[in-house]
Design brief:
Length: 297
């Protein structure tokens, strides 16, 4: 699933990186999942053709590996060179964190997905400062459903994850993967502009559609097959709503917790996993913006 970088072996320090100055598009995991101006059919299709969480986790790992590689190379590089390459590091950190939030929000539909999600949740916990006492620990346990499997299920899911990919093509995704060398690409993405009002409007539109779908359940003459389609559209609209709010929470622009939570549909508070994923996105976004403010580039 992940792609190797042939230039990595030649890099002995950040100064020896084979910089790629040709920019290309960056599509993070949440952006890859989001629908724009979806119809009821689109919402239902989003549920019926779910994203592969295991593939999302593999892309997250690649970006985490690139962050670790940066740290290793930085230890043998002049401070000025480290500073010069910080934008790549910040972008790769955000790509990994965005994928982590996406994994927390999206449902796992099979054993391989469940195993991958738990692994990403464990990696997230390990990244926390004082993980045993960190206030995000409880949210992570809910979002990644870490304590809810017995030994038999854990073993079965691990086998499913290990055996995936044999004779089977990876599920298509628009999400892109990147390396430290992609200087222009990562810098341009880091400087992207985010319109708070636009994302809030999109989140609210998903909420409006969710209300409409829920209201249609009151129709007594709705046949079972149509009722199933409405239920799928409801689920799709709810997830798209949370994804839009999570993208806003992780954006480089300043956004308050109140702005996000006030825009959240009431259904979010009744779905503890989705609520936990959104709260993690808010906390991660705040931490990331603080890191950028403390270490501007």
């Amino acid at each position: 699933m992940t792609k190797s970088n042939p230039r990595a072996s030649a890099s002995k320090s950040l100064a020896s990186l084979q910089i790629d100055t040709n920019p290309r598009a960056v599509i993070d995991e949440i952006s890859a999942l989001r629908l724009h101006r979806p119809s009821a059919v689109d919402y239902a299709a989003f549920v019926n053709n779910p994203a592969c969480v295991a593939d999302m986790v593999e892309r997250a790992r690649l970006h985490a590996d690139q962050v670790a590689r940066f740290v290793t190379l930085a230890q043998v590089s002049p401070p000025s060179t480290v500073t010069q390459n910080l934008p790549q590091l910040y972008a790769l950190v955000l790509l990994n964190m965005t994928a982590t939030v996406a994994v927390a929000i999206m449902p796992a539909h099979n054993g391989a997905d469940r195993h991958a999600r738990c692994q990403q949740g464990a990696a997230f916990l390990q990244s926390l400062e004082n993980p045993d006492e960190n206030e995000l620990r409880h949210l992570a346990e809910i979002a990644f459903e870490l304590p809810h499997r017995d030994a038999h299920t854990i073993a079965r899911d691990a086998i499913a994850f290990a055996s995936r990919g044999h004779g089977e093509e990876p599920k298509p995704s628009r999400a892109t993967i990147h390396w430290i060398e992609e200087n222009a690409t990562l810098r341009n993405w880091l400087k992207r502009r985010t319109e708070v009002s636009v994302l809030l409007a999109e989140a609210r539109q998903h909420a409006i559609m969710l209300d409409r779908f829920e209201a249609s359940f009151d129709q007594d003459d709705l046949p079972p097959i149509a009722r199933d389609a409405v239920a799928e559209a409801c689920e799709g609209a709810l997830h798209q709503h949370v994804l839009a709010l999570a993208e806003l929470a992780l954006s480089p622009v300043t956004v308050t917790t109140d702005q996000i939570l006030e825009a959240a549909h009431a259904s979010v508070t009744t779905r503890t996993k989705l609520q936990a994923g959104l709260l993690i996105a808010i906390a991660v976004g705040q931490h990331y913006r603080a890191m950028l403010a403390a270490n501007p580039c």
